[in-house]
Amino acid sequence: MPATTPATIVGAVLSVPAAAPAEAAAHYAARLAFEADVSDVHADLASGAPGVVVVDTRSKAAWDQGRIPGAVHLPTAQIAELAPQSIDPVLTVVTYCWGPGCNGATRAALAFARLGYRVKEMLGGFEYWVREGFAYDTAAGTEQRPIDDLTAPRSGISCAC
């Protein structure tokens, strides 16, 4: 029987090789220039950090159902018309919509960028704001749900990632 050479195993992760470190650093720095997460947005709003305005890009019905405290309501279809008189152009705009299955915040971020605003999209949207246990406003008042431990530590203390 002839000798056989063992087959080379290529795993799914490395079937496309990882980028060189300098390319990876540029990629991840670029992502952070375009995105913010729910915890970071909450921390900035809670501390009163300057320079950011959070914009809810959903419909009036969605806004009434629940929204981030302090957010400005500006549906995506109205951004081009209303942003110049309602959003200070020196601020960085953080857009959000329903959640990760919705690209409304991405569309809104594009609309703001086309108007000359600096903009970031809040990853996770309103869904993850609520799932991480942060308080939110509704037409009836302020509400808060328990932390979903699949999205944040039960303690409510940041994951510090």
Strand content: 15-25%
Query: First CA to last CA: what distance?
Result: 55 Å
Structural class: alpha/beta
* Major pleated sheet: 5 strands, parallel
- Overall geometry: globular
Strand order of the largest sheet: 1-5-4-2-3
Mean pLDDT: 93
Counting DSSP H or I runs of 4 or more residues, the number of helices is 6
Oligomer description: single chain
**Element pattern in H and E:** HEHEHEHEHEHEE
The counted number of beta strands is 7
Spatial extent as radius of gyration: 20 Å
Low-confidence stretches: none
- As a percent range, the share of helical residues equals 25-40%
Write the layout of secondary structure elements.
Elements: H1 21-34, E1 35-37, H2 38-47, E2 52-56, H3 60-65, E3 72-73, H4 79-86, E4 92-96, H5 104-114, E5 118-123, H6 125-131, E6 136-138, E7 141-143
Parallel strand pairs: 1-5, 2-3, 2-4, 4-5
Antiparallel strand pairs: 6-7
Brief overview, please?
The protein is an alpha/beta fold and 161 residues long. The protein is 35% helix and 17% strand.
Q: How would you describe this structure to a colleague?
A:
This protein has 161 residues and is an alpha/beta fold. It is built from six helices and seven strands, in the order αβαβαβαβαβαββ. The strands form two sheets. Strands 1-5-4-2-3 form a five-stranded parallel beta sheet, with helices on both faces. It has a two-stranded antiparallel ribbon with strand order 6-7. The protein is globular. It starts with 20 loop residues before the first helix and ends in an 18-residue tail after the last strand.
